[in-house]
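Amino Acid Chain and Its Fold in Token Form
===========================================
Scope: a single protein chain, as residues and as a discrete description of its fold.
Amino acid sequence: labelled as such and written in the usual single-letter residue code.
Position: the record begins directly beneath this header, with no further notes in between.
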Amino acid sequence: MDFKLENKVALITGGSKGIGLESALCLAKEGAKVAICARNKDRLEEAKSYIQKQTKANVHIIVADVTDKSECIKAVEETVGKFGTIDILVNNAGTSQAHAFEEVENELWKDDLDLKLFGAINCSKAAIPYMKENEQGSIINVTAALGKTPPKSSLPTSVSRAAGMALTKAMSKDLGEYNIRVNTVCIGLIRSEQLEKRWKNENPELSWEEYSKIDRSIPLGRIGNTEEAANVITFLSSSVASYVSGASVNIDGGFIGTL
């Protein structure tokens, strides 16, 4: 299927590893011009090399901390300066913070919301004027399925991710008249550096394929791969999904018991 992404311009935050990196690669394979931002320049250089070894894409790296509003503006303006516009924004920057309520101090609440919620808010605000000029755009907010049904000791992540879902729905209603679509993907257990460390510490004798099937609570019977999340993000970014906005798509192997 042709996703019609040739020469579209995408900015992916948290683009140096994991879902952000695979999303950048997937978009690049479809012909998009890609800017990736993260805090670590060395990791960004490695990510750029990883993408360019597999594609002929024009990849631009941006060192930026999206907890800082001015850095969000810089990331968008640098993308536009390099490629002339911005069509797609993937708000992916984030980490996993999972603690019991009484363990979470105010500073951690603030840090988590600054990264996951306000990072998305500030990057989106910076990108929207260019999307309005183009009379089209797609914003993907990467959240987490646990924001829908928070388990025990899942704070502050479950709250910041739930806020990201509400933000998505509200934005989609406010921006629809400008043909700007806003959707969220709600991530479940997906292969990551954190999970790989747990695997190597707890069950080094198992292959990844064996380890990924230990958790029997996932209906599809395994942990997901970053490519599987990236494929859905690419679809939602594209004009193939031209009538999809305000959607909350679970990428969790069927684990969460709600839509």
User: Anything to note?
Assistant: The longest strand covers residues 137-144. The chain is about 45% helix and 15% strand.
